[in-house]
Amino acid sequence: MDNFTPVSALVGGGLIGFGALLLLATLGRIAGISGIASLAIFQREGRSWRLAFVVGLLLGPLLVGFAVSDFSYSTPDLNSKTLFAGLLVGLGTAWGSGCTSGHGICGIGRFAPRSIVATIIFMASGVVVASFF
Amino acid sequence: MQLFFALLSGLLISAGIAISKMIDPAKVLGFLDITGNWDPSLALVMVAALVVYTLGFRLLLKRGSPLLRADFSLPAKQQLEPSLLLGAAVFGVGWGLAGYCPGPAIAALPAASSGTAGFVIMMILGWFIAGKVPIRNRQQKS
C-alpha cells in the first residue's frame, strides 16, 4: 500500500462532494456526469446548463495544473482495449442510468436503493475485470 | 447565473478528480486490482465525497427549494429493473478494463491524449447506441 495517498484523496473527494452539492443547491439537479454529458449532446432541452457543466469539467484539471507545479497524470494508449472499454462505459452508464458520480456519490448520498445496488454491481464487476483479466 | 453555477459545479468536481488523482486511470486500477499492490485511495475519495454530499443533501432538502429554480429535480424511480442491473455490470467491465469512468475521461481530454479521446468518442457512441437499443423492462409501458 505504498501508493496510498490518503490526504489528497480526502481533499479531492471532499471537493467532488462540494461541487455536486453546489449543483443541487442552485439548479436542484443531481450531478450525474454520464447523464449530463450525454444529454448535453443528444437532447436540445436543457442543453445550455449541461454544456456549461461539461466546460467546467474540462477546466478543473487545467486550473489544478496551474496551481500545482508537479501535477501530471497518465493516459491510456489508443488501442482496441481502450476503445472497447469506452464503448462498454457508454452503453452501461446509459442502460444503468448513471455512473460513479450519479449513483456512487449523489445516489448513495440520498440513500437511493437503486444507486446503492448499481454501485455494488459496477464496483464488483470492475474489481473482477481489473483483477483477473 | 444558472450557467455560471453549472460551470462552477463541473469545475469543482473535476478539480477534485484531479487533486485526488482519480484522473489517472493507473490510480483507479490500483484500487480495482486487488491482486497487486492495492491502493485504497479511491475508497477514501468516495467516503469524503459522500460525507459532504449526504450532510449537505439533508440540509438542502429542509430548505425546500434550490436557489435558482422552483423545485429540486430528483429521480423518483424505485424499481431495480434489468436495465439498471445489466447496465451497471457492463459499465463496471469497461471501468475495470481502462480505469476510466465518464468524469475522469472527460476531465482528462485537455491532456490531448489519443487514448483518452478514443475512449470518450466510443463512450459517446455507446450512449447513442443505448438510446437506440434500450433494454426492455417487463413493467415498462411503451
- Tell me the Rg of chain A in angstroms: 16 Å
Order of helices and strands of chain A: HHHHHH
Q: Mean of residue pLDDT of chain B?
A: 95
| Largest interface, chains and sizes | A-B, 108 and 115 residues
Strand coverage percent of chain B: under 5%
For the termini of chain B, the CA-CA separation is 37 Å
Provide the structure class of chain A: mainly alpha
**Which parts of chain B are unreliable, with pLDDT below 50 for 5 consecutive residues or more?**
none
Structural class computed from helices and strand pairing of chain B: mainly alpha
State the major sheet of chain A.
Answer: none
Radius of gyration of chain B: 18 Å
Count of strand segments of chain A: 0
Q: What is the domain tally of chain B?
A: 1
Q: What sequence of helices (H) and strands (E) makes up the elements of chain B?
A: HHHHHH
The count of helical stretches of chain A stands at 6
Oligomer: heterodimer
Largest sheet of chain B: none
Please bin the fraction of helical residues of chain B.
55-70%
What is the percent of helical residues of chain A? over 70%
What can you see in these coordinates?
The complex is a heterodimer of chains A (133) and B (142). Chain A is mainly alpha-helical and 133 residues long. Chain A has a domain at 76-128. Chain A contains six helices and no strands. Chain A is globular. The two termini of chain A are 21 Å apart. The mean pLDDT of chain A is 97. Chain B has one domain (2-132). The termini of chain B are far apart. Chains A and B meet through helix 1, helix 2, helix 3, helix 4 and helix 5 of A and helix 1, helix 2, helix 3, helix 4 and helix 5 of B.
